Amino acid sequence: MTFSSTQRPALRLMAAAACFAVLGATAAEAQDGEKYQLRYNLSQGESYDSSVSTEQVISQEMMGQKSVTTQKLDLASGASVAEVAEDGTQDIRYIFERVQGSVEGDAMSMTFDSDNADEEPSGPMAALFTSLVDKPLIVSIEPDGDVAGIEGFGAVIDDVIENAGIPDEQMKARVRSQLQDQFSDDMLKEIILGAVFSYPADAMAVGDSWTSDGSESVAFPVQMTDTYTLESVADGVATIKVSSDIVPLPDRQAQAMGQMLVDVALTGTKTGKLMVDLKSGLVTSGETSMDLSGEINAQMGMPNAQGESETMTIPMSVKSNTTVSNKMVAASEATKTAS
To answer: pTM here?
Structure first.
């Protein structure tokens, strides 16, 4: 069970899908000129529902032929704060309640929905996504937004392997290793939490900005310089503007895809706004858009005696839009995430 070059961007769609889903800010209402100390901070026992939707369009042109792939993903999950340590680290228990999506393009067409239990998942990617449902994942988040650890994804991988009906134990071990490599800790952070970043050490006043340099995306080999601006605070809600410059990852390496070595070089921007409830520290709503363009350089086949290989340059663009909503729920309504 391996994932093709066409499937890999879709595998990583969840990474973009959850973008900024857990940005937190905790501060009392302040008068004009006062500052807010931004921190990720929920109390033990609190619960919230999360909804994330992403649409991504990838365009490529090869030998005069244009290929367009549209990927959509909708995630619905519940989360509850299981424990808060003395240092403020919060253990949050996530339960994905529904995963649905689609991939439409020249190379493939598929849909999947975890609510359609009678339908067989169409391929390993759909099987892995739908296997997320009802399996608890524990994410430890520090007050400044850093993720200290993630537990529970091994059960998702075990479920995929079991349902795949692989009879050979050696093959099972190989598939498990491949999935663990493809879904690294960094990818899981983006899948569950969105882009992971640190909050500023200093308190911020309306109009102040802070920058996160050199954050990497696991969706594509790019490096982002993220700038966040506290635009306004009104009625207990902070509006935060997001602006990112995106360049190719300087130390990226070409990846093997079948008989090819592929190097992806993309540049662009990401923009958006987040509405943060100051009392709960959750993003009540948010939207981000990313626009990338560049090229894929593919080295095809083995080098000849002179060390030369046939190469191909493929123009590529990626446009995506992500929306997120988080809503606090009363304790009596949070039985699924708290149980």
So the answer is: 0.80
